[in-house]
Amino acid sequence: MKKTLLAAALGLTMSCAYAAALPNVAILATGGTIAGVASSNTATTGYTAGAVAIQTLIDAVPAVKEYANVSGEQIVKISSNNLTDDILLKLAKRCNELLKDPKINGIVITHGTDTMEETAYFLNLTVKSKKPVILVGAMRPSTAISADGPMNLLNAVRLAADPNAADRGVMIAMNDQISAGRDATKTNTNHVHTFSSHGLGYLGVIAGGKNHFLRKVEKPHTYQTEFDISKVEKLPRVDIVYTHASADDAMVKAAMAAGAKGIVHAGSGNGSVHGQTEPALAEAVKKGTTVVLSSRTGSGVVNPNMAQYHKAGFIEGQHLNPQKARILLQLALTKTADQEKIKEMFLKY
Ligand code: SIN
Questions:
Q1: Which positions ≥6 away from 344 have C-beta within 8 Å?
Q2: 141 lines ligand 1 (CB under 6 A)
């Protein structure tokens, strides 16, 4: 009623008066299946990811305008398997720039699901704001019948516009679920229900058009971290070496030859290293390369394992899967090469 009188007094139409009161959400687009185009509406594989421009995606979901004033900006147009460190830096810097603007209430990033978990964790550690930053994607291309992108985008905008979503770290909104950027990982090649934080569960769910928050992440995030990428032009090279039966030292030697400043070892079980790989990893530490032990199991904590790992200077990757451990190690190496300090960071973040 108040708004009606105000609009009349100002000579505005109702829709203008309401639009002015809406939060402002910036949508940064990077491509992915949410912007994918297939040759037919039944094709859900073999499509071109990242083909549709952001304004077309926004126009396809007019309902977003009921919740926020949205603006679209195309950062890149890629399939996220082609994500690079440069794109991560560009995205984080653009988020920080936008979030400093008092007129911006939140950010949505459209992204391929393949590497969304890496971008989400990177931003979770480098965005310096309490305002919501939400990653969203789709498992079915935009041309598919029952495409999941439009509802995911609507949910993401509603989440970014929600003041209650502030100060929860960077989040992923997919399939009516709200996941922590720190914890969520892609677990299925095809299903729309692909993101899971395994035993840690979801931060919340989106139901009946409302965000229902259920838990918070304990680990420091966004403005609470020590990572400042504002002046970082290049991230240190960190490679992942994946163990398997008969693994040897070839991959570690290749990483070293490529100039790796860090190696994340995706070990078996509790971060175990094949006896044929271990001497090369120990040698890498002696040469100044930081070695972090993660696990290929996909969940669980890598605890201190064999005494000789400790002696060699290998660092436990704690709860992070190899691709997330790689992100943290890259950021850690922008600050220090001191193994004790990096060890603390893996306990902290
Ligand atoms: C991609 O990650 O860009 C392709 C796959 C997807 O978005 O689901």
A1: none
A2: no
In this structure, are residues 33 and 112 in contact, taking their beta carbons and an 8 Å threshold?
yes
Nearest partner of 296 among 322, 324, 326, judged by Cα: 322
HSE-up of residue 310 (Cα within 13 Å, Cβ side): 6
CA dist 50 and 152 (Å) reads 16
User: Which CATH number fits the domain 238-348, given the four candidates 3.50.50.60, 3.40.1360.10, 1.10.8.80, 3.40.50.40?
Assistant: 3.40.50.40
Question: How far does residue 46's CA lie from ligand 1's centre (Å)?
Answer: 11
Q: What contacts 331, CB < 8 A, 6 or more positions away? A: 122, 125, 126, 227, 229, 235
Fold for domain 23-224? Rossmann fold (3.40.50)
Q: What is the mean pLDDT of each run of 10 residues along the chain (349 residues)?
A: 40 45 97 97 96 97 98 98 98 98 98 98 99 98 98 98 98 98 98 96 96 96 98 98 98 98 98 98 98 97 92 97 98 98 98
- Tokens in use for 55? 């304004």
Residue 92 CA to ligand 1 center (angstroms) comes to 20
Q: What is the 3-state composition of the chain as percent helix, strand, coil, each rounded to the nearest 5?
A: 35, 20, 45
Strand partners, 293: 265, 316
